[in-house]
Specification:
Layout (H helix, E strand, L loop, with lengths): L1 H20 L7 H6 L6 H12 L2 H15 L4 H29 L5 H8 L3 H21 L2 H10 L4 H49 L3 H9 L18 H13 L5 H8 L4 H26 L20 H6 L4 H38 L6 H24 L3 H27 L5 H21 L5 H22 L5 H8 L20
Length: 504
Amino acid sequence: MVVKVILLIVFFAIMLGIGFYSRKHATNVNGFVLGGRSVGPWLTAFAYGTSYFSAVVFVGYAGQFGYKYGIASTWIGIGNALLGSLIAWVVLGRRTRIMTKHLKSMTMPDFFGKRYDSNSLRVAASMIAFIFLIPYTASVYNGLSNLFGMAFDIDYRICVLVMALLTGVYVIVGGYMATALNDLVQGIIMLFGIVAVIAAVLSGHGGFIAAIKELAGVPSEVMPGAYASFFGPDPLNLLGVVILTSLGTWGLPQMIQKFYAIKDEKSVHTGTIISTLFAVVVAGGCYFLGGFSRISGVQAAADGTIAYDTIIPMMLSSLPDILIGVVIVLVLSASMSTLSSLVLTSSSTLTLDFIKPLFIKQMDDKKQLIWMRVLLAFFIIISVVIALDPPAFIAQLMGISWGALAGAFLAPFLYGLYWKGVTKAAVWASFACGIGITVSNMFLNYIASPINAGAIAMIAGLVVVPVVSLLTPKMKKSDVDEIFACLNEKVVVEQRMALPEEEE
C-alpha cells in the first residue's frame, strides 16, 4: 500500500508542477487553446495518442472486445495505429494546420463556420460537440472504479473528486501547453506500463506460447480454437469496432484540434511516426492483453451476462503490488490526459463558437480567457456529477458519443479540406445523418450493435456529403478560391525536406 500511495503522490505532484510551469503560455486565447500554434512533434504526438486512449479503452473496451473476439481483438489496436493514427496524420495533419491558420480558426465548429461561411453551422456544431462530449467526459471516470476497488480500500467517489480537481487545476492554470506536457509524461508511463503488465500476465500463464495453447482450448460455438484464431469468432462485428474506434478519430474535435497547434512541416513528419508507434504499443497492447481474458477466470453472472468492466481489473489483481501501482498510475494517466483534452475542447468551443457569436460579440481576449476557465470548471463539475450517479440513458449515450460526433463531423471536415465543391446543405445533411442514425438507434435499436451504428453513421456521412453537394447550390467561387489559396502559397524548405526541381 505504501508503494502505491507514493507512486500516486509523485504522479500528482508532477502534474501540478507542470500546470504551474505552463501558465506563462496561457496568457492569451491562442496560447490557452492552441499553445500559440508552436507545439513540437513529441508533444503533439503524445497529446494525440493519450487523448485517443483513455481508461475507457484500457479497462472497458479491452475487456469487452478481448472477451468477445479473443486474440483477434489485437486487430482493433492495429487499426487504431494504422487508420486512426498513421493515415489520419498523413491525410489531415498538414492540411488542417495550413487551412485553420489561414482561416484563423481555433476549434472545429469555428472551422465549419468560416470554411462554409455560415454562423448557423458554427453554432450548431458547437452544440453537438457540447452535448456529446459531456457524457464522454463522464465515461472517462468509469474505468477507474473497479481498479481502485481492487488496489485501495477507499471510496471510488474520492478518487473521482481528486482526479477531477487535479486535472481542473493544471488545465485552468496552464491551458493547452500544460495538457500537452502532461500528456508527454502520461504517455511515457502508459508505454512502459502496458509492456510491463503484458509481460507479467503472460508469465503467469507460462509464457506466450503456453497462453495461446490455453486460449485455443476454450470452447466456441463457431469453431475449435476460435479465440486464438487470426480473425476470431465474429470477424464482421470485429470490423465494425475497428472502423468506429479508428476512423472515428478523424471527426472528433478533441483529436483534430491537436493538428491546429503543431509547429511546422518537420513536426508533422516526426509526429506521424511517433503517434503511430505509440498507438501500436498502447492500443495494440491493451487489446492483446484483453484477448487472454477467457483464460483468466472470468465468470458469467447467473443470467449469463458478463461484467466487462471487471475483466481487466480481475486479470491484474494477482500481480505484485509494485505492478498494481504502475497499473493505477497508467490508468490515471490515460484518464487524466483524455479528460483534460475533452474539457479544454468543450470550454473553448462553447466560449468561442456559442457564447461569443450569439451573446457577447464584443468579448476581448481577457474576457474570453475568463469565460473558458469558468466553463472548464463547470464541465468538470458536470462530468463528476454524472460519473458519481450515472442514469441509465447516460450509460447508453456514452457508447454512442463517438459515433454521433464522428458521424456528424468527419465527412464535412475531411471533404472541406480537399474539395471546393462541398455545399452548406451537404454539411447540414451530414450533421442530421450522423446524429439521426446514432440517436434514433439508441431508442429504436434497429441496428443491434451501437458500435456498428456509429460505424454506419460515419460511412453514411462520407456518401451523403458528395451526393448532396452535387445536387445543391454551390458556394461563391471567389470565396472558396480565397480559402484554398493558402495551399498554393510558395514556401522555402531545406533540401532534405523536399527534392528540388531539375533545370532542363
